[in-house]
Amino acid sequence: MAAKDSLSALTEGPPGVFRRIAAIIYDVFLLFAVLFIATLIPAYFLSPESFVANPANNSVVHELDVPLQGWIYRGYLMMLIIVFYGWFWRKSGQTLGMQAWRIKLENLNGDQPSWTQCVIRVLVAGISLAAGGLGFWWIWLDRDSRAWHDRASKTVLRSIPKEKNKAKKT
């Protein structure tokens, strides 16, 4: 219980919308790189000829093969997105963007979120983004400043103060 109390002492209230968005933008760059590499792997095995230069006809491949356009491929990318965020959240409660912007994810008890909570959080956040970001803007209306995906996954974001963050590292 003492460890939980000391963790609570290191955090303060929820971060604002713009701080959350800044962390998301930071994470999107890393996620893009992961998904780019994850796309190259099946593309290479399904059509290695696309990776060979063909100066004879000076052609450039502009399309992915059909197997990289279907539901299996989309499911594969969605699984990678869930694993990407889930791994960070389960490991330390923070993605790289959340570390940079001093934000920490916890469940309602102050512990690391479960895999089920991570999956729900990613899926509902996707719905929120598809709805024009309404789930993110919702924190301005919510009494606890929680977004749709916070509520659905029973998690909460906490801000980590600058000086306490440095004390934690030493």
Order of helices and strands: HHHHEHHHEH
Low-confidence stretches: 1-9
User: Order of strands in the sheet with the most strands?
Assistant: 1-2
Please count the helical segments.
8
Q: What is the approximate shape?
A: globular
Q: Estimate the strand proportion.
A: 5-15%
Overall mean pLDDT: 83
Total strand count, please? 2
Structural class per helix/strand content?
A: mainly alpha
Distance between the termini: 22 Å
Oligomerization state: single chain
* Residues in helix, %: 55-70%
Largest sheet, in brief, is: 2 strands, antiparallel
Rg, Å, rounded: 20 Å
Blueprint of the fold:
Blueprint (H helix, E strand, L loop, with lengths): L1 H9 L6 H30 L24 H21 L4 H5 L2 E5 L7 H16 L3 H4 L10 H6 L1 E5 L2 H8 L1
Antiparallel strand pairs: 1-2
Helix pairs in contact: 2-3, 3-5
Description:
With 170 residues, the protein is mostly helical. It has helices at 2-10, 17-46, 71-91, 96-100, 115-130, 134-137, 148-153, 162-169, and strands at residues 103-107, 155-159. It has a two-stranded antiparallel ribbon. Helix 2 crosses helix 3 (71-91). It is globular. The protein starts with a helix and ends with a helix.
From the structure above, extract its key features:
single chain; mainly alpha; two-stranded antiparallel ribbon; globular
In short:
The protein has 170 residues and is mostly helical. It has 8 helices and 2 strands, in the order ααααβαααβα. A two-stranded antiparallel sheet has the order 1-2.
